[in-house]
Amino acid sequence: IEQNPDEAKYIVENGNELGNHSYSHQRFLLKLPSFVESEIEKTNDLIRNAGYKGEITFRPPFGKKLFALPWYLSQHGIKTIMVDVEAETYMPQLESDSEKTQFLVDYTVGRTQPGSIILLHPFCEACSSSRQAVRQIIDLLQSKEYKFVTVTELLSYETKD
To answer: How far is CA 1 from CA 7, 13, 138, in A?
Structure first.
């Protein structure tokens, strides 16, 4: 957001939801409370400066959260969002991009269930397999009558049960 403020504003203006994933993307293990506060507050400020008015949730980098982070989030009423389908983490060594793409599709579609949060990194430079997999994953899940919603919408479904 800091490096691309106009893009961040565009994302917000077009009705998308933003969440906090930290400022520097470091692991939050064995960090001082001051580090946790700085990472979250700097990013929240950038999100607000982009014009986002909704609730800001937090997903810890690498899915790790111990001691200072959960305490800080709890004290500030910030919801922690975790993923449950992360195919890239479990991808075996495969030769071709098409094999990698097929693994990502099969793994993701096979493990997705109602309420799942899927993690993919389709925008990194070396992530062409993830980019190729996204459309196929969306199409296959939609054919199974899955609906894609924001985190806020998903959380509202969970509270209605």
So the answer is: 8, 14, 26
11/87 Cα distance (integer angstroms):
26
The answer to whether 102 and 93 are in contact (CB under 8 A) is: no
Name the pTM for this structure: 0.84
For 44, the token pair is 């929240």
Which pLDDT score is estimated for 71? 94
How far is residue 72's CA from residue 111's CA, in Å, rounded to a whole number? 31
CA angle 23/28/33 to nearest 5° reads: 85
For the chain, how big is the Rg over CA atoms in Å?
17
pLDDT per residue as tens digits for the range 14-46 = 999 999 999 999 999 889 999 999 999 999 999
**80-97: per-residue pLDDT in tens?**
999 999 999 898 999 899
